[in-house]
């Protein structure tokens, strides 16, 4: 399968131990893709390592940003770069190895075979065949519970709403008004999910085995979870308010 217009976006902050192996795995699994490392000024030298990799391989590119701007801001910068360089599809992928690049060819096949009808493909932990490795039960319950809550509140047909491994058509992203996104952390993924779902296009979940990082420090925190659930609650009440007001508008 030839996929010359796919850009895999990898946001980084202090991922010097992970950036070489993850890019190697991506290009081994899908040699036709290009990779964009979006580095937020990592003080551990991640950006320098990425530059060295880019000098050695024309498929690898680096976008340097000053300061730690958050996951959402990094992806938005990557989306803009992809659009400016005429990539047809973008892939979101974590640098820490938790998302298996080996599943990428299948995700891209689902995306391209459903072109026009599919608005996104999600590497999902919570569908049949998916799962997590090295997560305590409490974290699994929090993740599953958060996804269930978001699915009910927002009315999105996705089991893993917070998943960070995704494929999107670049042209579709350009229609979603992403400049108005307020979510800069992991809630960014939920916001994208509801916006794509609102277009009427399908979101397809492909099972993956998510592995907890082995090197480096996780960027997840309690504050990120609180922010996500707070925003979901606000969006959910806005949605239910619109739904409940429809009968009154029809009868007035």
Describe this structure in words.
The protein is an alpha/beta fold and about 250 residues long. Helices cover about 45% and strands about 20% of the residues. It has eight helices and nine strands. It has helices at about 20-30, 45-55, 70-85, 105-115, 135-155, 170-175, 185-200, 220-250, and strands spanning about 5-10, 35-40, 60-65, 90, 120-125, 130-135, 165-170, 200-205, 210. The strands form two sheets. The chain has a seven-stranded mixed β-sheet, sandwiched between helices. Strands 6-9 form a two-stranded parallel ribbon. α5 runs parallel beside α8 (about 220-250). The model has no long low-confidence stretch (mean pLDDT about 90).
Short description:
By secondary structure, the chain is an alpha/beta fold. Helix content is 44%, strand content 18%.
What is this structure's SSE topology?
Layout lengths: L5 E7 L6 H11 L4 E6 L6 H11 L3 E5 L6 H14 L4 E4 L11 H10 L4 E7 L6 E3 L3 H18 L11 E4 H4 L13 H12 L3 E6 L1 E3 L10 H30 L1
Parallel strand pairs: 1-2, 1-4, 2-3, 5-8, 6-9
Antiparallel strand pairs: 4-7, 5-7
Number of helices: 8
**How far from one another are the termini?**
56 Å
CATH H-level superfamily: Spore Coat Polysaccharide Biosynthesis Protein SpsA, Chain A
Strand content: 15-25%
* Mean pLDDT figure: 90
Low-confidence segments: none
Order of helices and strands, N to C?
Answer: EHEHEHEHEEHEHHEEH
- Principal-axes geometry comes out as globular
Walk across the major sheet and give the strand order: 3-2-1-4-7-5-8
Q: Over all CA atoms, what is the radius of gyration?
A: 18 Å
